[in-house]
Amino acid sequence: MKNSREIMEILEAYDLTGSYRAAAELAGCDHHTVARYVKMRAAGQEPVARKHRDRAIDAYLPKIEELVVRSNGRIRADVVHKRISAMGFTGGERTTRRTVAEAKAQFKAGQRRVYRPWITEPGLWLQWDWGEGPQIGGRRTSLWCAWLAWSRFRVVIPVWDKTLPTITTCLDTTLRRIGGVPAYALTDNEKTVSTDHIAGIAVRNPEIVEVGRHYGMTIRTCLPADPETKGGSEATVRIAKADLVPRDVNLLEEYRSFASLEAACRDFCEEVNNRVHRETRRRPVERLVEEQGRLHPLPKAPFTVAFGTTRRVKWDSTISVEAVRYSVPHQLIDSRVWARFHGDELIVTAVGEAGPAEVARHPRGTAGSPVIDDAHYPPREDKEADRTPRATSAEEAAFLMIGPGASSWLVEAAAAGTRKVKAKMAEAVALSKLYSAIEVDRALGTAAVTGRFAEKDLLSILDYQAGLDTVEPTRASETHSLQPGTSAWSRFGITPTSTGTDDEDRT
Prior knowledge:
Blueprint: H1 4-17, H2 20-27, H3 31-42, H4 61-70, H5 77-86, H6 93-111, E1 125-132, E2 142-148, E3 154-159, H7 164-178, E4 184-187, E5 194-198, E6 201-204, H8 206-215, E7 218-221, H9 227-244, H10 258-273, H11 284-292, E8 309-312, E9 318-321, E10 324-327, E11 336-342, E12 345-352, E13 355-363, H12 394-400, H13 404-415, H14 421-434, H15 437-450, H16 457-466, H17 502-506
Parallel strand pairs: 1-4, 4-7
Antiparallel strand pairs: 1-2, 2-3, 5-6, 8-11, 9-10, 11-12, 12-13
Helix pairs in contact: 1-2, 2-3, 4-6, 5-6, 12-14, 13-15, 14-15, 15-16
């Protein structure tokens, strides 16, 4: 068997001489060889192609092809080898594997579907699909992934569930972000969209039909295993999950809150919509401006029927549902919201400038037990501010100017129900002129800590503090005890039982 270089030399020699024998002398081969290659070239065959040699397995090719067709191209080569070995094949398993691979390739080539590219037009198609989102606090989330087929503008919204009210909320938000309504919305055949299939025809959910009618849009569903209708939305889901769901390939950290996931989705949309698309070579935001001219006007009011019943937010930032109070964000006070139950949860939806959005989600409560979320109320930066004295007159200002001890004295004295507080405050101001303000402030602080608010207590503390630097401290000894005597009991009407002196009582 000649190699390709030798064959080309033989043909070149024949073209030069025009004779089989002369070309054979130049190429160094038999003239019959020259004739064979020249005739193959003239017949349109490849001279360099090797002639198929008969193999021992060729006798079993019909059976191999039958097994491949019956298994729809899924049968394993080792199973085929056992079958043909039982029929008398004595070759190796490697030969069988190679032959089965050839048979499978031919089968797939005959069964391959040919798809026509989907040529989209501006203003016609919006697609949406769902992706598995990250877990937050051990709870699963879902990603609403929508895109305009012509401009490639994408919208990704995280949600807790895939119920019809949630779909309506996401659809309204998506339409408001793109600034109009396309003619068709294409999605998968979920129960919220298609309730049944009869003779291969999807029966549409009447509620989703009402939603589409409200926005002037026709809801369509994809065909199973059809790249023309599912490829775009599935690609959007795949890209969103790759960038938003924590995995080993992206090393993203877990989301601590649902708000952080919402912020990540907004950043993702901002990035992909301002990035040059690989196929269109333009940014989706630029093509969206052109496509908006072909979109239908968006209704001013969203479709709120699916959101539940309306409730008015009270002054305490709560709504009442079935005799149970549930909190909502304080920014919604005196506004209208929609509440509905989904399983054991209450979902509250509000409509703002950007469309409807879920604003609160609570577990179902019981009558008489309000369900309150502290995150719905503004934080108090200084919870002790209500107990901080604030002067409302010149006398109060003069007293509070003594120092922080004066403020502490006033707070504690008021809490103890002290009488003649204003007179004692004036006394403290007068004493601050006889003593230094620092000494009086320290005495007031001591009185606040020890709870001494009686007459002359402040002066007594001042005298005691003034003598701390000169008077020797009293110490216990063999003749003197620091234990107080019983003479003070007489003020309570109690007569000591001991007949000894105070010194004896102390011992």
